[in-house]
Amino acid sequence: MHDDQQFLETVVKALVDHPESVKISRTVDEMGVLLTLDVHAEDMGKIIGRSGNTAKAVRTLLRVVGMKHDARVNLKINEPEGGRVIHGDKTESFDDGKEEEVSAEPKSLDDAIDDLKI
Fold first, then answer.
1. Would you place residue 18 in the very low, low, confident or very high pLDDT band (cuts 50, 70, 90)?
2. Which residue has the higher pLDDT, 44 or 115?
3. Contact present, 73 and 29 (Cβ < 8 Å)
4. pLDDT surpassing 90 at residue 65
5. What pLDDT is recorded for position 98?
6. 2 pLDDT higher than 50
7. CATH of domain 3-77
8. What is the mean pLDDT of the chain?
9. 85 vs 69, which has greater pLDDT?
């Protein structure tokens, strides 16, 4: 196993609740190295992190590992089957289990800002 793939596996398995479900594939082409990550649906929130910060941090660290070997390393995180469930006019997200209304009409900027206020 290559250093970048081993590094990613070690980090991801330390973060998730289902380490046995972690699968990483590695491909190399003219663009560099692409690591593709598959995890259990319940672990997606842990891998992505709030506002994607955990995924960004892992990608940054992978770039550093790649630089050590003069390689460009990118990470693709596959959304697992059953990651998001859509029920008619509602959608349920896998990370918090809360349902939120889905409207066919886009919200106004004021409505969207009001939704963000706690």
1. very high
2. 44
3. no
4. yes
5. 44
6. yes
7. 3.30.300.20
8. 81
9. 69
CA distance linking residue 55 with residue 45, whole number of Å = 10
d(CA 60, CA 56): 6
Could you give the CA distance from residue 62 to residue 78 in angstroms, rounded to a whole number? 17
- Edge-to-edge strand ranges of the sheet holding 90-93: 84-87, 90-93, 99-101
Question: Which amino acid belongs to residue 60?
Answer: T
Strands of the chain (E only): list them.
Answer: 23-29, 32-38, 73-77, 84-87, 90-93, 99-101
Which positions ≥6 away from 32 have C-beta within 8 Å?
66, 71, 72, 73, 74
Domain boundaries, the chain: 3-77, 84-116
At what angle are helices 3-15 and 53-68 packed, to 10 degrees?
160
- Kindly give the residue spans of alpha helices, DSSP state H, lying in 16-81: 44-48, 53-68
